[in-house]
Amino acid sequence: MKKVLAMTLAAALVAGATLSTTGDAEARRGRNGAAVAGAAAGLVGGLLLGGALAQRPAYGYEVEPEPVYVEPACYWTRQQVRNTYDYGYHWERVRVCD
């Protein structure tokens, strides 16, 4: 759809520029207004065509990947733990995660 619109606009600009140009005889008699109008129409048409064909930046549409939760590798083991009452040691079963 975008290409069809751009091609139609380009064809209209070429046709308009062709029809609005003046010959040498008209330019010598002081009808430079048509030449200036043709040049201005060509510039404006080029700007419109360039704007239609230019790629748009993707503001706000950056896709971030979903966060991935990785469960840590855990295991149960027995460790020697210091007893705070009599300053001795005892064995406890503890979970250790990497």
UniProtKB/TrEMBL annotation:
The chain crosses the membrane at residues 35-54. Residues 1-20 form the signal peptide. It comes from the Bacteria. Keywords: Membrane, Signal, Transmembrane, Transmembrane helix. This is Na+/glutamate symporter. It comes from Labrys wisconsinensis.
